[in-house]
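Researcher: Predict the fold of HlyD-family secretion protein.
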Amino acid sequence: MNYETQVAGDAPAGIFGEEAQPARRRLLVIGAIIAIILIGIAAWITMNGKSPEMAAAAQEAPVVTVIVPGQSVVPRTISGNGSLAARVEMPVGVVGEGGEVRQVLVQPGDWVSAGQVLAVIERSVQAEQIKSLAAQVEVNRADAKLAQAQLDRARALVQRGFISQADIDQRTATRDAANARVNVAVAQLAEQRARTGRLDIRAPAAGLVLTREVEPGQIVGSSSGVLFRMAKGGEMELLAQLSEADLATLRPGNSATITPVGGQAQFSGRVWQVSPVIDPQTRQGMARIAIAYDPAIRPGGFASATIVSGSATAPMLPESAVQTDAKGHFVYVINGRDEAERRDVEVGQVSDKGVAVTRGLNGNERIVASAGAFLRAGQKVRPQLKKAG
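Model: Structure tokens for HlyD-family secretion protein follow.
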């Protein structure tokens, strides 16, 4: 009985001990594998300096194109506005005694040459006076011819003693007086013709007719005022009103761009005169900018001007890089952590080359070239550098 009990008690312990050993070994192997994996992850994190969450965020950051603009030479400009006018305006009126206007030969917008007739005044009375004076010239010439013939005959008879020297002197005086009367009559005829010619209203110089204030049948005289206004040579100008500080930087010869109100067309001009005085009330002065003729330039109209007064160095950015909100102009700068930072700037001239930044940048920053409207301050990005154009 003791033998059976011994066998019954030893058998289970032997069987269970042999089965438990492999299980423990398997658990140890699995634990070692897990530990190795954890150690590998920790090492990878240590080497890359980023957590898995950080890596995922980096993969989700938007890609933006950035530029480093540097410094560019840009023109220094001054903006102003004012009225358009003829550079040399010529008022044309009656220079003679006047009369009834028979014909008006030009219209506003016509080009005329120097001395061209603009309007004709009735001259029937003056024409008859010219005929009368011309006839008087012929009468006086006939008298002078007769006096010369009598003097010649007297000189032929004086040698024979029939006529004294006193008679010769008298006939010579008569001949000279007749010639003088001819000269007087000729001068009177020329004067009348000149007076009649002044009845024509003529252009004092070549140019463009701007206005017309006379019609056929109108009675005009020296008190009638201006009948036509002309622009000499068709040249125009802009009378730009500028501040005292801006005016001090201008010189005759500075180039300018003129934009009339109501249109998109631009015209080249050049400053030809800078006002020597400043209005004590407005603290402004005038720059006169000469412009070549163009039908779009109308005297009396309003226009703006951009005048180049020198040059300076400044960062030049594409227009897409500059954003605007209620606070003003700004750009996004990418810092060393690849985060977008707002930077307020002041802009200068806008041209085909881009926008000149006059304040806020030194040119060495990484600027978001486009898509800035979709970014926010502090946002992580993946910058891609592009050479500034």
